[in-house]
Amino acid sequence: MERKIISLPCGASVGGDSFVQVMAAEVSGIKSNLKLEMEVMNLHSRALVALDYEVVFYNSILEKLNNDTYSISQKDFFIPSGAIGNIGNFFIPGEFSDARKVDIFLVRGFFEDGNALDLKYEDSEIVVLEALDSKQKNLLKDKVGEDAISLAQNNDLSWRCVCGYFNDKNSNVCGNCERNKTEVLEKYSSIDIFIQDDEKSDVIEEEIADDFFESDNEKEKSNQTESKLKEIIQKFNSLEKKPKILLSASLVFLLMSIFIGLLFR
Asked: Average of pLDDT values for 166-181?
């Protein structure tokens, strides 16, 4: 039985502020049946229904498996305007069975109204599509918002917002969600920041719980002491007058000892 392969972080060519962008990509499956999965953001006014793109395949030690880009056309998917969607699986040819990573170059997008859009840009760069696991994604959404899908990235020609969109380097506001560039890059570039905040919250919650527990214990001890005092006084009052006189000094001493013990505990 063949084991599932482990995908390396994939890359994509990005032209800042493009209407159609790659959000995530992964090589998956087994060596004899590899597939490329890809998610795309569509900010065009019409739904995206087909895509032409090119890829370069790499093996596990990042050696190129093809010198020239490999051209792919995919259709039969539907990504509405303003949405992120999966374009379906592309089954990788056997000659690239050692592929563990790809770089993706979008060429042309086709829309439901029959129009097409050229997606190749002169000013573009290859960026790494860092993948977050489900726990990290949930933590990011909890801290930033439900639309958050990626960490912020500051690249040479672009910057990536937490919503996933790649903006032109000179844009100060995200072209998709309108978050501020400076705030996004300062606060959301590392998952470690969120993990540390979460750990601090856990410590604070534990300390609060301990305080409540100690407070309950103190209250219980105080109630027990009060009950003992009442019991001693009731016994003392039940004695004859003469024995009371003999025991009064001992009782006073006992009561003072208990009071001092409570005061300095």
From this structure: 96
What is the C-alpha to C-alpha distance for residues 28 and 33, in angstroms, rounded to an integer?
9
Helix (H/G/I), strand (E/B), else coil: 119: coil
Give the model's pLDDT for residue 232.
60
pTM of the predicted structure, to 2 decimals? 0.73
What SS3 class is residue 124? Answer: coil
Encoding tokens for residue 173? 């506001």
Q: How far apart are CA 194 and CA 143, in angstroms?
A: 7
User: 23 and 117 in contact (C-beta within 8 Å)?
Assistant: no
Can you say whether the dihedral through the CA atoms of 145, 148, 151, 152 is positive or negative? negative
| Token pair for 224 | 């027990």
Q: Which residues pair with 20 in a beta bridge?
A: 42
Q: Are strands 70-79 and 11-14 parallel, antiparallel or unpaired?
A: unpaired
Q: Which two tokens stand for residue 252?
A: 């006073």
Contact call for residues 86 and 77 (beta carbons, < 8 A)? yes
Query: What pLDDT is stored for residue 208 in this prediction?
Result: 55
Structural Rg of the chain based on CA atoms: 34
Distances from the Cα of 232 to the Cα of 150, 177, 252, 264, angstroms: 69, 73, 11, 22
Distance from C-alpha of 203 to C-alpha of 113, rounded to nearest angstrom? 55
Question: What is the separation of C-alpha 139 from the centre of its chain, rounded to a whole number of angstroms?
Answer: 4
